[in-house]
Amino acid sequence: MSVALITHPACLEHDTGDWHPECADRLRYVLRALEGEEFLPLLRESAPLATEEQLRRVHPARYVTDLLAIEPAPGERIPLDGDTIMSAGSREAALRSAGGAIMAVDAVMEGWARKAFVATRPPGHHAETNRPMGFCLFANAAIAARHAQARWGLAKVAVVDFDVHHGNGTQEIFYGDPSLFYGSSHQYPCYPGTGAAAERGVGNVVNAPIPPGSPGAVFRAAWDDTILPALAAFAPELIIVSAGFDAHKADPLAQLRLETSDFGWITGRLMALARTHCQGRLVSLLEGGYDLDALAASAALHVRTLMEA
Questions:
Q1: I want to staple 12 with a disulfide (CB 3.0 to 4.6 A). Which of 1, 24, 105, 122 is the partner?
Q2: Is 238's pLDDT higher than 90?
Q3: Residue 309 above 90 pLDDT?
Q4: Residue 236 falls within a domain, yes or no?
Q5: How many domains does the chain have?
Q6: Beta bridge partners of 258
Q7: Which domain holds residue 300?
Q8: Is the backbone peptide bond immediately before 48 cis, with ω within 30 degrees of 0?
Q9: Is residue 70 part of a domain?
Q10: Rounded to an integer, what distance in angstroms lies between the CA atom of residue 279 and that of residue 27?
């Protein structure tokens, strides 16, 4: 068994405009960083299209229908809010992003891969049940978790999130469901304004807010002291990672001070917990990261670490 890399060229066609930080070059840089000889063992797979039935496990039918009905003309961009754009290529890209997350769950549950990294866009952790926002159209991690429960009968699925921005969408979707766990470290205060430590759901939500300007040592302590013990107590049967690399010190959209090595560290910690509780099953989904070089280096270390054991 190896690590699956799931992506699709259609995700490059989600055109947010020249000014937008969530641009196609993000994915190009990540994929280029994964082309070296050391990454030859990766199982390279094409992300399928998610079905409307799969999307409706998280989003209401009207939301899915209305969003998929938006069909911008070539070259046209339709803003859904101040940050979130749809272009002619966005519909397929969003379906491939959700479909790739679902495929990754199937890969580790079927056993033909031990871990999976889904390199797609648009990201997903800000999308709420009825609201696209924060560059996100569908809640990819939540859709993957619900698929794991529906198809594979898992009783407990965890999503953990080290993006610098709190995953308000994942939290909102999971908030009242004790069969799902959400744990997040994130800069606070920062967009989207959620993620205070007091936001606990039904005891299944663990937020570790980190002050702006904090270095990697504060990030590591948040995980070791707060999130990882709660995740271990939850004892998940599958771990899904919202892997955002925008807490890097070079990133322009926030003010945490992580080094590239910090992303390798948290990957190793999560892998160890996955070995203990869920037969090593771990799925990682690309979320944020807006300095192209820092994103590429951090994602490469993340995948390299996934390949180690």
A1: 24
A2: yes
A3: no
A4: yes
A5: 1
A6: 248
A7: 2-7+25-45+98-306
A8: no
A9: no
A10: 30
Query: What are the distances in angstroms from CA 284 to CA 110, 135, 141, 217?
Result: 16, 18, 9, 23
- What are the tens digits of pLDDT across the range 1-16? 699 999 999 999 999 9
Give me the percent of the chain exceeding a pLDDT of 90: 99
Check residue 175 and give its pLDDT: 98
Q: CA-to-CA distance for 124 and 132, rounded, in angstroms?
A: 9
Q: What is the DSSP letter of 108?
A: H
Number of helices (H) and strands (E), helices first, in the chain?
A: 10, 10
Q: Is residue 290 part of a domain?
A: yes
List, for residues 30-88, the tens digit of each pLDDT value.
Answer: 999 999 999 999 999 999 999 999 999 999 999 999 999 999 999 999 999 999 999 99
The sign of the CA dihedral 5, 48, 291, 267 is: negative
Active site residues: 126
Q: What pTM value is reported for the model?
A: 0.98
Tokens for 294? 């820092």
> Does 236 score more than 70 pLDDT?
yes
Q: Which of 52, 150, 160 is nearest to 106 (CA)?
A: 150
Q: Report residue 269 as tokens.
A: 């910690």
The verdict on residue 212 lying in a domain is yes
CA angle in degrees (0–180, nearest 5) for 198-263-226: 25
Q: E strands along the chain, which residues?
A: 2-7, 43-46, 77-79, 85-87, 113-118, 157-161, 180-187, 205-210, 238-243, 282-286
- 244 in the Ramachandran plot: left (φ > 0), alpha (ψ -120 to 50) or beta? beta
Which CATH number characterizes residue 138's domain? 3.40.800.20
Query: What is the token pair recorded at 255?
Result: 């003010």
Which pLDDT belongs to residue 120? 98
Contact 144, 182 (CB under 8 A): no
Tens digits of residue pLDDT in 124-158: 999 999 999 999 999 999 999 999 999 999 999 99
E strands, 32-146, where? 43-46, 77-79, 85-87, 113-118
